[in-house]
Design a protein that fits this description.
Number of strands: 3
Oligomer: single chain
Number of helices: 2
Length: about 100
Amino acid sequence: MVERIAAQATRTSQTGRAAVPPDRGGPTAPSASAAVRSGSVRLHLALDLPYPTDIPEACERIRQDVAERVATLTGLRVGEVTLTVRRLVTAAGASRGRVR
């Protein structure tokens, strides 16, 4: 249950914070795993981000959003959120020519 909440929160944050449209064909759905122990949860998220983007800033914002949302909906304290960027996705129709 916590994994599903975290994955949905990641998708919502990814769409809003990292400007990844939910209907774009490139990015795959984010995934989440959770380890719950004594009222606390550790989350691991995996997602795609658009290219170009400020990766550290986007990741930090997504971490914060997901931690807040999971804590609010589950009542658990979120102790740690790790994030893996699976791949960078270019905008549809972007030029793939050489940079001069």
